[in-house]
Design brief:
Layout lengths: L4 H16 L2 H6 L29 H12 L11 H4 L18 E2 L6 E2 L35 E2 L5 E2 L1 H4 L2 H4 L1 H5 L5 H13 L2 H11 L7 H12 L8 H6 L8 H12 L16 E3 L20 E3 L21 H12 L24 H12 L26
């Protein structure tokens, strides 16, 4: 019995459609590239480690809280750590890039005073929440003195990180002091305030303990108290199978199969390494940000508490999680979103991504299970300098 050409074509097409809609085809969608790597996921630790030379005490953490909210640490006495890392904003801020010196207002309402010659801070403000766990690996091991900090991993430990914004021109230092002098100026100011004299002596046991190193130690001690380690995902990983929904569990599986896990792994959902991705430039900035070692690499951001950290990426150029996932879909297909970064420069792990539009909603649903709003939000009523709490934010 003979079959004409049109009938053969129809049968062939029907076979393709049947195959493509089958569960087997759906599974093979993730097998076109390398099989997904296996990574160990756990809840965040319930206790925080500190370095041996800066063990956390209530007195030291309380001193750190005062310093964190006190604009006495800035050159013009108008900016504090809390200006860009306020508890009302999850210790981050809802801005793409920050306005530090010569600014007024908080978060989205913050603007430069006029006249102004201070540039924007070129990178998005990391949340302080859970930075105590920076560097944690897939076995929940980490060394506080080696914890990587900032988008380019340029310093290690919270103690070192705490002093860097004070020295940065556009963040806190301003135009009236040079970098080599600003920490000495801050120490001189603190020594002249009786309440700080008492707080430092109580925290460090020495009336001569007001120095730049101890300023960093006190702020770091306070920051190690800022943890959000009881998200629904943490509860799920500790044995409560009903802590996350079925759709969130499906999203977790898609997250792993799609290859997101290659960089976003461990309890903090970050490998803390730098990768070249070609993130779109923020058009508000005057020149491209070349990142780590000038090769356009930036550290993998934690996926914890994303509800507080929008907009996303190192320069806040992507405003929603959907835009972030669409970006990853683009670069996995070789599309270039940054004219300074060509696809041959992309991290090799980009080629292992297998992400489609239909995966995005379940993955975002899963990411929401990593949010935890139960963290210390206490704001001092006053600070020892007598300056406005938090800086010029009202």
């Amino acid at each position: 019995m003979k079959m004409d050409y049109k009938a053969l074509v129809a049968l062939f097409l029907m076979g393709i459609l049947t195959y493509c809609s089958s569960p087997e085809a759906e599974n093979q969608r993730f097998q076109k590239k390398k099989a997904p790597k296996e990574f160990h996921f756990t809840a965040l630790p319930e206790k925080v480690k500190a370095p041996n030379d800066n063990l956390t005490t209530p007195q030291k953490a309380e001193l750190g809280r005062m310093l964190f909210f006190d604009p006495i640490l800035s050159g013009n006495k108008d900016v504090s750590c809390a200006t860009c890392h306020h508890p009302d904003n999850g210790y981050a801020e809802f801005r793409d890039t920050s306005i530090g010196v010569n600014g007024k207002g908080l978060g989205l309402r913050r603007v430069f005073n006029q006249p102004n010659e201070i540039p924007l801070v070129k990178r998005n403000a990391h949340t302080i929440l859970n930075t105590a766990f920076n560097g944690i690996n897939t076995n929940n091991r980490y060394t506080p003195k080696e914890a990587p900090m900032f988008w380019d991993n340029r310093v290690s430990s919270l103690e070192s990180q705490a002093l860097e914004p004070i020295k940065a021109f556009e963040e806190m230092r301003g135009p009236n002091y040079v970098e080599k002098d600003i920490l000495d100026e801050i120490v001189t100011r603190l020594k002249a305030i009786p309440e700080y004299q008492q707080l430092f002596e109580t925290a460090f046991g020495d009336e001569k303990s007001i120095n730049a190193g101890n300023v960093g130690k006190a702020i770091a001690a306070f920051e190690r108290t800022l943890v959000a380690n009881n998200s629904r995902f943490d509860l799920y990983m500790r044995g409560d199978d009903e802590a996350i929904s079925l759709s969130e569990k499906d999203g977790f599986e898609l997250f792993k199969k799609a290859g997101c896990v290659n960089c976003h792994n461990g309890a903090m959902f970050s490998d803390f390494k730098t990768h070249v991705l070609g993130v779109p430039e923020n058009k508000k900035l005057s020149e491209p940000d070349s990142g780590f070692e000038a090769n356009f690499a930036f550290r993998t951001a934690s996926l914890r508490n994303l509800r507080f950290t929008a907009p996303y990426m190192h320069n806040g150029s992507l405003t929603t999680l959907n835009e972030v996932l669409e970006f990853y879909e683009d670069i996995s297909q070789g599309k270039e979103r940054n004219p300074s970064v060509h696809k041959v420069q992309f991290d090799s792990l980009v080629s292992e991504l297998e992400l489609t539009v239909r995966d995005m909603a379940p993955i975002i649903s899963f990411l929401n299970s990593l949010n935890d709003s139960d963290f210390d939000k206490k704001i001092p009523e006053t600070v020892p300098s007598g300056l406005p709490v938090g800086g010029n934010i009202h």
